[in-house]
Amino acid sequence: MFQILTLDDPRWIDFIDSRREAHIFHHPRWIKNLEEAYGYHGFFLALLDKKGQIRAGLPIMEVNSPLTGRRWVSVPFSDHCAPLYENEAALEELTTGLVTLSAQKEIPRMELRWSYPPREEIYCEVQHVWHTRQLDASADPDVLFEGLPKKIRKYVRSSINRGVRVEIGSSDADMRRFYKLMVQTRQQHGVPVQPWRYFAGLQKNLLAQGLGFILLAYHQEICLSGIVALHWQKTLTLKYGASLKQSEEDLRELRPGYLLEWEAIRWACENGYTIVDVGRSGLQDEGLRDYKNRWGYQEQPLAYCSIGGKLSYTAPGKLMRLMNSVVRHSPAIVCRAAGEILYRHFG
To answer: Which pTM was predicted?
Structure first.
């Protein structure tokens, strides 16, 4: 039978702790931060056995927006969120249950960021690819580094030789430094930035709880670039990256992004993580896909499914393209204000 579990139900933590394929987007603290930042309602939809134990399930957030409608999403602002299940029979039963739920009038359409067993009622499409790298639990970072392409090794060594250093942290001050970079990066690309409260929540709800960290690259006292990394089970997820606007040739030549990427992989090796996840890329974004592939990340199609209506995640892309020039040529406050207004509608 299906049951809705609250975010503090200990059965869910026990369940995801038992599933090695679970990752940070299944964690209650990730859902809690989205609740606090955007006002969504989060819960877990679980298939229980006769003893009340979870056989299969997925996190859900209800988004209620005048722009994108009322919908259940698994999960907003998460590149992917696979259902968790003990066996194939449980997955089939979970899928059938989702279709049955969707037929009830009080249940809104569902948007599921993964592929599900085929059903006539489920609509799927592939507009993205997903990149991960498998690591041996006992991998030697030095051996792994020597296996990277020559150009990447050259850039990493050059960055170090030019005096770039990387610091790891999880404090509010670290997040504020990262957010300053994030605003500049988003403005440079003409894209609104998420509200500060969202990143403050990441620091409070995840990083401060031992579920992530920030890598910051410095040259002398200038913070050049940063990565927000999250982790659960054996997966390290590189969720956000940002850089100082590098208009000067000497700053571009420091290449801090390459050093940060390598330090994240090194951290995963040294701490026994077996998967590094760098998220999704659009099918048309050949430059980003090529960059990830050169690092040895494996590319695979990423399907999104919906029940009870078509997917709505393409809507923000159209709006963002219209705003691109405005954001790029306006003060940073416009970039932040646009994100404050829009992000909660398009999770």
So the answer is: 0.93
